[in-house]
């Protein structure tokens, strides 16, 4: 079943059914979370654009292919060079998302396996919508997304918490669109 959330500049559609958030098992030989030593996360320090009522600095996406490959290789050294996987099984994820004021610094980027990002991307979107509406401060949103990315088991609970916290304010009324 589809539900609608009004967002800045349009409408964002999310799936809200039991099947929508079914989790694929995360393989044991891929990073389940950012390595805290390689990817502690960092905020944008160079951007000239500011967003949201809180006026947070925004960095445009700017990570070249060479840097992505360096990060992938660095993580691969820890995970048996990802011998069972192709590069296409991963996306280079901003630990602190750009929409929350995250940076393009290598210490904020990690290879996120394709079984993980379906669980975290929707939460990122909800948190950023909350920031855009002034319902969440940057520090709160960053703390929440870091908690989810460090422990996927809390993702369903976090989604529910976000829906309860501001779902109706954002235009989700629980009915079919």
Structure commentary:
The protein has one domain (2-18, 32-166). The chain is 31% helix and 16% strand. It has helices at residues 65-78, 117-132, 138-150, 155-166; strands at 2-7, 10-15, 49-51, 56-58, 90-94, 109-113. The strands form three sheets. Strands 1-2 form a two-stranded antiparallel sheet. It has a two-stranded antiparallel ribbon with strand order 3-4. β3 and β4 form a beta hairpin. α2 packs antiparallel against α3. It is globular, with a radius of gyration of 17 Å.
What is this structure, in a nutshell?
The chain has helices at residues 65-78, 117-132, 138-150, 155-166; strands at residues 2-7, 10-15, 49-51, 56-58, 90-94, 109-113. It has 177 residues and is an alpha+beta fold.
Class derived from helix and strand content: alpha+beta
Q: Gap between N and C termini, in Å?
A: 9 Å
| Total individual domains | 1
Number of separate helices: 4
Shape: globular
Please trace the helix and strand order, writing H or E for each element: EEEEHEEHHH
Helicity level: 25-40%
Low-confidence stretches: 1-21
Task: Identify the strand order in the major beta sheet.
Answer: 1-2
Q: pLDDT average, as an integer?
A: 83
Annotation keywords:
177 residues; 31% helix; alpha+beta; two-stranded antiparallel sheet; disordered N terminus
SSE layout and pairings?
Layout: E1 2-7, E2 10-15, E3 49-51, E4 56-58, H1 65-78, E5 90-94, E6 109-113, H2 117-132, H3 138-150, H4 155-166
Antiparallel strand pairs: 1-2, 3-4, 5-6
Helix pairs in contact: 2-3, 2-4
